[in-house]
Amino acid sequence: MSESYDIIVIGGGTGGYPAAIRAGQMGMKVACINAWLNRDGKPAYGGTCLNAGCIPSKALLESSEMVHRAQHELKLHGIETGKVSFDLATMQARKNKISSGLTGGIGGLFKANGVTGLEGWAKLLGDGKVEFTSHAGESKTLTAKHIIVATGSEPVELKKVAPFDHEVIVDSWDALDFTAVPKRLGIIGAGVIGVELGSVWARLGAETVILEALDVFLPMVDAAIAKDAQRQFTKQGLDIRLGAKVSSTKVTGKGKSRKVEVSYEQGGKTHTETFDTLIVAVGRRPFTDRLGADEVGLALDERGFIKVDAHYRTSLPGVYATGDVIGGAMLAHKAIEEGVALVEQLAGHHTQVNYKAVPSVIYTTPEIAWVGLTEAQAKEQGFEVKTGATPFAANGRAKALEAANGSIKVIADAKTDRILGVHMCGPYVSELLAEAVLGLEFAATCEDIALTMHAHPTLSENFHEAVLSVDGRAIHALNKKKAA
Ligand code: NAD
Question: What's the rounded Cα separation, in Å, for the pair 428 and 62?
Answer without folding.
Answer: 12
